[in-house]
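Trying the structure run again after the queue cleared.
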Amino acid sequence: MRKPLGAALLALAIAGAGAAPAAAAPVDSADSFGKGVKAASVTSVANDTLAATAETLGQVLSPKAKAVNFAGTVALSNCSGSVVRFPASEDNDPALVMSNGHCLETGMPGPGEVVVDRASSRTFGLLNANGSRVATLRASKIAYGTMTDTDVSIYQLTTTYGQIKSSYGINALTVADTHPTAGTAITVASGYWKRLYSCNIDGFAYRLKEGDWTFKDSVRYTSACNTIGGTSGSPVIDQATNKVVAVNNTGNEDGQRCTVNNPCEVDESGNVTVRQGINYAQQTYQIPACFGVDNKLDLSASGCVLPKP
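Done. Tokens:
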């Protein structure tokens, strides 16, 4: 929920950060919510860029983090994302891109709103392992999008997994179909910033309330994952399995209670906890059950618990 800043792009170029993120679309729903791109000072963005460069070099040199890189991640106009497949997906299936519901180009879905099978021609910059942009992928539709219970969007592409692999040598990231566990070492891979954040799953928020929206069973990071604007929609990758276990979406910036950009945790008894500076993601293990043969969405499938229109 952070606004794009033209000057920030100039600062990136001045700082020598490599390819700058694409300019934002005229209407970008992530402008004021979660980890979308937000207005910031030129100095702060330049500093973030320099820190990102140093962190990326550290990831390359660290044997522990070698397994996780940028291959399969994508950059959106205002957010991050990844090309994903499910355990039963096949190479000739149309490929899918996962990001946040609040990153949809059609605007943020309201509470209770679910977007299904809506035409889209949105483009995504596909990155290789080193974070270089190697292709532009195009959507044929928004297969699914919502900010109810979770914060996710799934785009269907005009290309298959096999075509992406044969043309660019990049495999899709697999979405795990089991609930992650506390303590798991994870990496949040941002295609927008070409930046990796490594930390652990600290635990899970029974309910995460942010403004008018409520998310269920959210992943809470340890403090090392200090994600910034533009990281919305980044895949959260289990370092041991290299599978996606969540999608990055928000964090409490100012210590406020349950407001936009300041989500609060609500437990089973209704007790509220505010954790300033802590960031969150939404679990994705429940998504594979909702996609069947040919990667077709089937919200009536056995085991599918995603909100329905």
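The helical segments are 6-15, 42-61, 161-168. Worth checking whether this holds up in the mutant runs.
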